User: Fold this.
Amino acid sequence: MKHLKFMQKIPVVKHLVNKAISRLASNDASAIANHFSQFLKVELANTDELKSEVFNVRHQVYCEELHFEDERNNRLEQDEFDSHSFHSLIRHVTTGRVAGTVRLITSEQTGDMLPIEVHCMHAITDPDIKPSAFPRSEICEISRLAVPETFRRRKFDQYKGAATGVINEVFFSEKELRCFPYIAICLYLSAALMALHNNKKHVFVMMEPRLARSLTFVGIVFKQLGEPVEYHGKRAAYYINPEMFRKNLSIGYVKLLESIERELYPNEKPRPIKRKFPKLGWGVRYS
Assistant:
């Protein structure tokens, strides 16, 4: 993988290298899906008790670690958008600790604004894609993705304001360690499922361009809506819809998505995802 990343810098072979990295990521995702649920469990945070766990993890990450928000006496990070949001979390089965969380902010009424509308409309320069271009009931925003430092494998972060996060390799097993780099990706898949199951057709998010690039390797391809702006670091506005999501999601991640959906929505009919690979004659039906 290290050699492939170096070769990405060579224009002549960049396209082929990107394909190779995507294939490796897809194959690894298939393996991860087979034992992901042994160590990590995805849940909808649909009770006050579960939401308190979500808000506490957000406080750890956004207030205590990154200092993006002021610390609160109750150690619960909440804002005005939580009242019209869906929340999900990933729990570490062995310890019961929350390994990550994300929310999907909706806008059922005119007064229910998305954060991107309140804080970052200047980041959207695309003339056609913006929240006001679609019915309020069909738009949403992925927000407040948080992974506590205990569950982050990254050994250091050169970006100002980000704390270091080293996995405790004595505490966690080798198989468990393989799952942890996928926590953030699984949170994005959870957000996608919350959107699909609540009939949201237009999804916005503010994120670092390097994260958006990384997500393309698993087939989550966002459309960038403008140049990066300063918003807790350099971030840009992005957009995705169900058609874009269905078109690009790699085969390995379809399997992982299936596993996550069974945990999030065990009593609901799965949302159909079809992913075709015409050049290789592959076909995947997610049902």
